[in-house]
Amino acid sequence: MLISLTGTPGTGKTLLAEELRSRGYAVLDIDRHVRDNGLLDERDEARDTYCVDTDALDLSLEEYRTDEIMIIEGHISHCVECDMVIVLRCRPDILAERLTERGYSENKVRENVQAEILDVILCESAEAGVPLCELDSSEDSIKDMADMAEDFIKGNIDKYGPGNVDWTGELEKWF
Ligand code: ADP
Ligand code: MN
User: Ligand 1 within 6 A of 118 CB?
Assistant: First the structure.
């Protein structure tokens, strides 16, 4: 059973993944997996990012499609065929702060904040039609988020969205 832990960069995926790992869950860093397995396609110079061969990525994860839970973490993890998706969210101003602190260029900060406001990853994630959970890291601590993620994974699938988050009030400021 594959569970995607996705979200715009800076929304807290890695931190939550670490907390879930410490609670005994198996977690796979999808970016590292992609690099280790040579699944990178060409580089998109304009957007300063890489493209990934999603068919090859799906195939490469066959060994994890068992009864055991495997959480795959990363902002492309929802592109994999998963059984559940956890989408992390973050308020635009806080997200911008986190990404600026990380050393992202002004353009890259803006691009990611705009994507967060437009629910890009949420919409992509919803396409698969599998249970989806939306958690807001600008609102809740990592421990609370891990509690909610566990509750969701254990079957409480109607409680966590989607639709609990709405950043459209920030549109004017970032577009
Ligand atoms: P991602 O892996 O999605 O890019 P990270 O896990 O690296 O995000 O987190 C980005 C930053 O946001 C880190 O500095 C982290 O400490 C902070 N952060 C993430 N989640 C929370 C949270 N729930 N509460 C407070 N700070 C958070
Ligand atoms: Mn990360």
Answer: no
